[in-house]
Amino acid sequence: MAPGTPELQPPKFPSVKSLSESSALTSIPSSYTFTTDPNQHIASDPQDSIPVIDFSLLTSGNPDQRSKAIQDLHRACEKWGFFMVINHGVAESLMKGMIEACRGFFDLTEEEKGEFEGKPVLAPIRCGTSSNTSLDKILFWRDFLKVFLHPQFHSLNKPPGFSEVSLEYSQRIKKVVEELLKGISKSLGLEEWYIDKAMNMSSGLQVLVANLYPPCPQPEHAMGLPPHSDYGLLTVLTQNEVGGLQVQHQGKWFNVNLIPNSLLVNIGDHLEVLSNGKYKSVLHRVVVNRKATRLSVLITNGPSLDTVVAPAPELIDESHPPAYFGMKFQETLTLSQTNKHHEKSILDQVRI
């Protein structure tokens, strides 16, 4: 072995990809079996669909167009907590390049990926399966890769090109998020740079999360990801052509059908805290299928790790007392890994 070459580590837990590709697999292991049907209660009302935000209007120099876009953003955040962003300026080729770079990582050997497996939650690069294999009684039908991109950029030396595309993609998404947070600040009645300054976004935590959901021989008994909300302020998602993401809205589950080349954005737990519950993080889940592999790439955008996230004082009065107490962002992330995965574990820690 050449000097300085990291020794490849055997995987600590079999990847779902390797399970799925096993010729002997005809049913899923019992550790992956969910007792409830993940496909039940799916709404199909075409009149009730995820809102669409035209990013070009949000950044327009025309005050009337921008005002309307901020109103649209307010309704989307208040009613859904999810919205699709069109005309965002991120090149289609870059979005597809990011997906393919992540696919290249999952196609590495189990030994190559094992170098990053089993790391703690704040490790800059880690991969694995499920969420927390030491605590989860039922495992999820997915493999993941998580890479810290900001405030310090980290990347992988393989597959080739991953570092370059992830850097360009993260920078483009950061600009989109900056404008969205400005619009959200205005929609809350705050100064447009309020969230950026209060959350110290210049040192904010930006993490790439790639999720791979391989074909499953018994999709009705497995779950890619169970109902959950996301940490942070905003999550931005792109995916390959395979669906599976479902959003809960007014007690019903809706399939997410993305507009081609759009970005899907959802509110995170810490934006719910900052808005004092005016904008709520929304439960979502991922179901799997028998034939196709789903691959999604998320960029989570949060405050700096040492920022105390609490309701904005401007949003508190006698009629709206604080619904959450403040906690450092890093503390909530660390605590979330010591509890079993459940729907809103982070918010449960800070709810008054």
Automatic annotation (TrEMBL):
Region (Disordered): 1-20
Range of residues in the leader sequence: none
Pfam families: 2OG-FeII_Oxy (PF03171), DIOX_N (PF14226)
PROSITE patterns, sorted: FE2OG_OXY
SUPFAM superfamilies with a match to the protein in the record: Clavaminate synthase-like (SSF51197)
InterPro entries named in the record: DIOX_N, IPNS-like_FE2OG_OXY, IPNS-like_sf, Oxoglu/Fe-dep_dioxygenase_dom, Plant_2OG-oxidoreductases
Keywords assigned by UniProt, alphabetized: Iron, Metal-binding, Oxidoreductase
Sequence ranges assigned to domain Fe2OG dioxygenase in this UniProt record: 203-303
GO molecular function, one term: metal ion binding
Assigned protein family: Belongs to the iron/ascorbate-dependent oxidoreductase family.
PANTHER family: OXOGLUTARATE/IRON-DEPENDENT DIOXYGENASE
Identification of the protein by name: Fe2OG dioxygenase domain-containing protein
Organism name: Vitis vinifera (Grape)
